[in-house]
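User: What would this chain look like folded?
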Amino acid sequence: MKKHNLLAFILLGTVIISCNSDKKATENLFSFDSSQFKEQYKPLESLSLALKNPENKKIDSIVYYINDKKIGTAKGNNKMDFAFADQKLGYQNIKALVYFEGENSEITSRVELVSDVEPKILKYTIVNTYPHDLKAYTQGLEFYRDTLIESTGNGTGNGTGLKGISSLRKTDYKTGKVYKIEELPESVFGEGCTVLNNKVFQITWQNGEGYVYNADTFKKEKTFTYFKKMEGWGLSNDGENLIMSDGSEKIYFVNPADFKEVDYINVYTSNSKIKAVNEMEWIDGKIYANIYTMDAIAIINPKNGAVEAVVNLADLKTKVTQHPDVDVLNGIAYNPKTKTIFVTGKNWDKMFEIKITE
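Assistant: Here's the prediction, encoded as structure tokens.
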């Protein structure tokens, strides 16, 4: 019995090796004509698709895919042009399924689609300066009626070098007084928060889960898990879906009812992707985002991920009390009543009300 099993295993292995070799042989017959490719494209450009066929195999047809979506079929080895106009920014994975002489072969490649928008550099003026808890390692900031909702992480505070406790807070923004606080367990690092349909949503950094609270009482009503293995960074909403970042260039739109992914965008400038998208705020149909370690706000088109403008707020950090634990700008809250934006940072003792202008 053992001999038979061993023989079967050897024969099976031979068949597998043979099949894999045949597959590899067909894959090496064709390649994309890379002379037709550029490394980067803009949305108004087109990609010219054609294959190299050095052994002059008789090609019946080629089915082309972009990001696993079929875009068309070419007869023989005829060239096909693909317009990028409606594509998301980011890497475009190209696949060709070649049918030839009763066989087929699959080949892949990719190019990068970047923004065609040159970001505007915007200015700001300080309207007011308010006190802010120096121990608050700010991760999320948002107005709910006249109250400021703030989510904090386990950052250091007050020069002690000791970790604090993550929390969800209600704050009187004029005095900086925290009048309601919900602390998280030490094992949980709090990240962004947002208010939608009278519920506060709060995410965590590496725990793979988030929480839903009653916006008035802060009573926790639900714990939800992320739709995939990822870190939680920033959180906002567009009035319908949650908007979530994970520390990369991606921003996800998430259904608040079942916490499943609805859509995503990649954040890009005219020459590169922008990683480390952090705290976010939805303002007048745009996503305003902190970029971690950069004391600036990027204003992002939510439809395609293009950075349309940048506000350099580096000077604000010089206006707060300097101490060993003072950290980066993080926290954007829009007050619709005053039409002004409130910004602060991690372990900053001040919060600034600003107006942004061209």
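The chain has one helix and 29 strands. If you want, I can go into more detail on any region.
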